[in-house]
Amino acid sequence: MDVAISTALKGTSQLRILYRGWKDTVARERVVAPHGLLLGARRYLVAVDMGKVGGGIQHFRVDAIEEATVLPQSFVRKEGFDLNAHAERCFGSYQQEGGIHDVAWRFVPKAVSRAEGFLFHPTQTTEREPDGSLVVRFRAAGLLEMCWHLYMWGDTVEVISPPELVQMVEAHRRSDFPSMP
Predict the structure, then answer these.
(1) What CA–CA distance (Å, rounded) separates 96 from 130?
(2) What's the Cα-to-Cα distance from 8 to each of 29, 31, 45, 180, rounded to whole Å?
(3) What is the model's pLDDT at position 97?
(4) pTM to 2 decimals?
């Protein structure tokens, strides 16, 4: 499967995949135009689903692709598409069109040395607060994936913004974790 994906990417060939999304009970066949791969906690194929009207860029979890076959048909990449710029709109590997937010997290002083060692996002900025805490800021999509990541930090991180993320994590901050990531 990895060979088929790599071959299709190099040759701008369409790719037939059997893909089982998280809502699917069985894999569905799709024909896609692969534009790249995002590597992180999970690998995502960045592609246009040729069967969807509008032809927007989507992410397909590589581990959910059950089969991949290179097709003889080629495609033209979306004009102006830049994989690096696309990836910078994501938190981790998740992308959600229209869901880009200004994000700010405050790490308590005891977590600062650990947080300073993390690259949460390629465009992040950091600032030290007078009380010794650290604020990390960036702009990205993927609030749910941010929640998964923030859970590991227990109560050593506070979400400042966006308000939607504040609400998503407020009931899940824990003080009983013996260590941080």
Answers:
(1) 35
(2) 16, 12, 11, 40
(3) 56
(4) 0.72
- pLDDT of the residue at 56: 83
Three-state secondary structure call for residue 133: coil
pLDDT of residue 93: 59
**How crowded is residue 34: how many other Cβ atoms within 10 Å of its Cβ?**
27
Ramachandran region, residue 80 (left: φ > 0; alpha: ψ -120 to 50; beta: rest) = left
Residue 96 and residue 18: Cα distance in Å, rounded?
A: 22
Query: Does residue 162 have a cis peptide bond before it, meaning omega lies within 30 degrees of 0?
Result: yes
Helix, strand, coil content of the chain in percent (nearest 5): 25, 35, 35
24-33 CB contacts, 8 Å cutoff, 24+ apart: 27/66, 27/67, 30/60, 31/71, 32/58, 32/60, 33/75, 33/77
User: What mean pLDDT do residues 62-88 have?
Assistant: 91
Residue whose C-alpha is closest to residue 104's, from 144, 132, 139, 129:
139
Q: Give residue 155's identity as a one-letter amino acid code.
A: D
